[in-house]
Specification:
The chain contains 14 helices and 12 strands. It is α/β, with parallel strands linked by helices. The protein folds into 2 domains: 241 residues, Aspartate Aminotransferase, domain 2 (3-Layer(aba) Sandwich), CATH 3.40.640.10; 134 residues, Aspartate Aminotransferase, domain 1. It has a 7-stranded mixed sheet, sandwiched between helices. Strands 8-9-12-11-10 form a 5-stranded mixed sheet, covered by helices on one side. Helix 1 packs antiparallel against helix 2, helix 2 packs parallel to helix 9 and helix 12 crosses helix 14. The longest helix is centred in the last third of the chain and has 20 residues. The protein is globular and about 75 Å long. The relative contact order is 0.13. The mean pLDDT is 96. The structure holds pyridoxal-5'-phosphate (PLP). Pyridoxal-5'-phosphate binds next to helix 3 and helix 4.
Length: 379
């Protein structure tokens, strides 16, 4: 089955009892048992819920993986994966990471006695040299946030396999429509379903997909033991979002590419980051491992904070807000918003300058988005 068809049908067969075409929202915490020790596969909704199960099957199908698990947030999914580690274990992570993942590693997981080394993702061989005898996990995002750098997943999967290390890829920015890391050799894919999978900026959610049965068994156990599960209603909203993922992603990308081309030529723009432009440093790699370039653009304005402040104040359609991946366009100032928790020296070292703006391009009409940016850039 093709992606578009899976998104609408996998895990979502009509309800056998009523014929309802849409998976019902099973608002129940518990399930009657036929006799002691006899039940219909459901005992308690932290452990399993039919609406969540439908979502988990759909998620697995979209990533072309065997097993899916849904969580209350992207960070809940991340926390559950990191619970696989024990005191003394070590993580190697790319240095361009979602701020919340960095905070979790440094402020929470470190207290468990699990340490992390950060590697400059421009040099894949640095991942190899950062590996220690106690390294259990490699954690990356690609495209990265906010600089939209691309990491070679297949090459990293080779390094991980040779060293018997689990490779986790946060696939939030690309979505499974444009990139499927399990097909490239990754062991675990993680998502913030808050973003493109949900797609409508109305829920917080997370997901994990793997084809490794042993890893799945452990994560399934932890999902129930830790308990950071999504509600049936939130599961249903993500399931509903997934049905239109393919059409939304095509529109996000179409608009983003046109806007990136427009911005690259604009005299007020100093630099543009979009993997779909031939001028992007890893454009070729992006073409190889992704089937499209997504809806995120970052740009540096000529000038500094003052110019960014006035730009952000002038846009009307691009709303100033955290998050991304919804149908509406958003504008974010990484230095003070998503990456505000990084110390200034760390932030500048990672190339997140004071004149950097990140755009989550929505699916409004391109001409309206272009006019909005044109107006905000005019002096
Ligand atoms: C938002 C985000 C997360 C965290 O997800 P939440 O749903 O906010 O907990 C993780 N990784 C990336 C790349 C994100 O954009």
């Amino acid at each position: 089955m093709e992606f578009e068809t899976k998104a609408i049908h996998e895990g979502q067969a009509p309800d056998p009892q009523t014929g309802a075409v849409i998976v019902p929202i099973y608002l129940t915490s518990t399930y009657e048992q036929q006799a002691i020790g006899q039940h219909k596969g459901y005992e308690y909704s932290r452990t399993g819920n039919p609406t969540r199960n439908a979502l988990e099957e759909a998620l697995a199908a979209l990533e072309n993986g065997k097993f899916g698990l849904a969580f209350a947030s992207g960070l809940a999914a991340t926390t559950t994966i990191l619970s696989l580690l024990k005191t003394g274990d070590h993580i190697v992570a790319g240095d361009d990471l979602y701020g919340g993942t960095y905070r979790l590693l440094e402020k929470v997981v470190k207290n468990w006695g699990v340490t992390t080394s950060y590697v400059d993702i421009d040099h894949i061989t640095d991942f190899k040299t950062a590996i220690r005898p106690n390294t259990k996990l490699i954690w990356i995002e690609t495209p990265t946030n906010p600089l939209l750098k691309i990491i070679d997943i297949a090459a990293l999967a080779n390094i991980a396999r040779q060293n018997n290390i689990i490779l986790v890829v946060d696939n939030t920015f690309a979505s499974p429509y444009f990139q499927r890391p399990l097909e490239l050799g990754a062991d675990i894919v993680v998502h913030s379903t808050t973003k493109y999978l949900g797609g409508h900026s109305d829920i917080i959610g997370g997901a994990v997909v793997t084809s490794n049965e042993a890893i799945y068994a452990q994560l399934k156990f932890y999902q129930n033991a830790i308990g950071a599960i999504p509600s049936p209603f939130d599961s249903w909203l993500v399931l509903r979002g997934i049905k239109t993922l393919a059409v939304r992603m095509r529109e996000h990308e179409k608009n983003a590419l046109l806007l990136a081309e427009f911005l690259a030529e604009h005299p007020q723009v100093e630099h543009i980051y979009y993997p779909g432009l031939p001028s992007h440093e890893q454009h070729q790699l992006a073409q190889q491992q992704m089937s499209g370039f997504g809806g995120m653009i970052s740009l540096e304005l000529k000038g500094g904070f003052g110019e960014v402040e006035s730009f952000a104040a002038k846009t009307k359609l691009f709303l100033l807000a955290e998050s991304l991946g919804g149908v509406e366009s958003l504008l974010c100032y990484p230095a003070k918003m998503t990456h505000g928790s990084l110390p200034e020296t760390e932030r500048l070292k990672r190339g997140i300058k004071d004149n950097l703006v990140r755009l989550s391009v929505g699916i409004e009409h391109f001409s309206d988005l272009q006019a909005d940016l044109e107006n905000a850039l005019s002096k």
